[in-house]
Amino acid sequence: MIPTRFSTQDLSLMDRFFNADKFHRDFSETNSSSPLVNIKQAEDKYSVEMSVPGFDKNDFNIELNENELIISSEKEENKEQEGEKYTRKEFSYQSFRRSFTLPETVDGDKISAQYKDGVLYVDIPKREEAKPKLPKQIAVK
Question: DSSP per residue over 56-71, as a string?
Fold first, then answer.
């Protein structure tokens, strides 16, 4: 639920940010699903949380192209096991690509990311002029 302290303009931006048409999923035939994402809005930023257990922070590519945030990864593992009368090789390939169209109110130069306990956290700060202002008291003369 969006707190009532956000303006109508904020609600419109959130509608566009969460709009399913704005989410583009591209993933390989070997990958059956795309990582699940939570998107939250605070007064000063948007936060994206992506569930991606088993990855390393170096496996991610995060890119901002105009107003499109693209989060992707390609990970390949080769495991080989040998026994007396057998040899077994297993190849694992995981990839995903998620893209999000960001509202014009974000400050793209200050986007940051952190990977911790299987979750990728991306903070997308709002520009100062997009942050809510406290009511100003005007004295009557």
Answer: -GGGEEEEEETTEEEE
- From residue 38, give the alpha-carbon distance in Å to each of 22, 27, 46, 67, 94: 15, 19, 10, 19, 21
pLDDT in tens, the chain (141 residues): 444 444 445 445 555 555 443 444 433 333 447 899 999 999 999 999 999 998 999 999 999 999 999 999 988 777 766 766 767 767 777 889 999 999 999 999 999 999 999 999 999 999 988 888 888 888 999
Distance in angstroms (rounded) separating the CA atoms of residues 92 and 141: 74
Beta strand ranges found along the chain (DSSP E): 24-26, 37-41, 45-51, 60-65, 68-82, 87-101, 112-116, 119-125
Calculate ∠ Cα 29-34-35, nearest 5°: 150
Residue with tokens 């956290």: 121
Count the neighbouring beta carbons within 10 Å of the beta carbon of residue 118. Answer: 11
